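Section handout 9: paired folding examples.
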Amino acid sequence: MSLRGFATINYWADDVVAAAAWYAEALGVEPYFQRPGPDGKLAYAEFRIGDNEAELGLVSRAFAPPGLPDQPGGALMYWHVDDLEGTVARLLDLGATEFEPVTVRGHDFVTASVVDPFGNLLGVMYNPHYVEKFGAAAGTS
């Protein structure tokens, strides 16, 4: 067995339309794929983001696995960002709430996390290994 890389992360939302609009504003891109549920309402919206075009899927909570907690918790996946403090400030301005403040982990690794307006944990980090592998984004120092 070999885990070859992050493929898709799903965030749950009672209102996928509102979640898709919030993430489109936060990410600066529209979802590339959307699918309605049996009731005709939007049940899934997917974004491709970052250097590897990782998939962020927004799924109607109606399709969540049984027993999934309705409070933030569990695994916390971090997205690399070149400007951690600016990203956190923007997410908070858009209505997210702080879960974990900006925290220096050592060796230039810095993390933070927020709870999006739909109850999902969204982790962001500055990861020097990521920059070594993919470089910094254009316009960053």
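Moving on to protein 2 of 2.
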Amino acid sequence: MTVRVTNIQHFSLDDGPGIRTTVFLKGCNLTCPWCCNPENISFEIENYIHNSQKESFGYDISLEELEKEILKDEVFYVENNGGVTFSGGEPLLQIRELKPLLKSLRSKNINICFETSLSASSDLLKIAIEYINEIFIDMKILDKKEAKNVLNLDLDLYYDNLELINNSNIDHGNITFRIPLNNEYTLKEDNIKEILKCIEKYADFNVEIFKTHNLAESKCKSLNQEFAIFSPVDDEALNEVLEKIQELNSNARIISL
């Protein structure tokens, strides 16, 4: 059995506790205008020209080969509580294919983390929950109509999946909301109010906020995709949001991605 990936990044420090191997899975059903990994949106392998050479975003890898890649860093996991992080794209969309690998990694006591937008069916999430130690959950636009129009996100499904995670056996100290902030969408006053309501409901989850950036512009050009340029978020606005969140949840911080 194979899965489709774009990159396997060793020695990652921002994708969960300790030193980690991050596996970027290809394919996502969202259309976030600020996406920093546009090469992971399409499920198809995409060709492009770089320095007059034909290159590709995406390749298929067997579960056996992927496990070998992950276990290359096993000694580092043991030393600092690291592990493997599945990112994307939306990794839940390949969870059925990943299941035998997850089962094998858990048998070896490898810490497993997922980064997800929760834009997958609850049945797929339930499979992942069996094996997850840590999880990062995107929190973006929480207005139902705008979430659908801008992100293609079903907000009812998002909240249903949040409840599944909340009621699971995953330690709440290992659950983290990640909130990308930009002036054009997520920093709108009404959206921040909805974000604060959600954080208050799940006040024992961790929260990380960060500024969206324009670093994916070159990838979009390679893929002949339009790229939306976002105005810079100033530090004052970022800190103001952090203060509001910390009134509800002390486990909140600013990160840089």
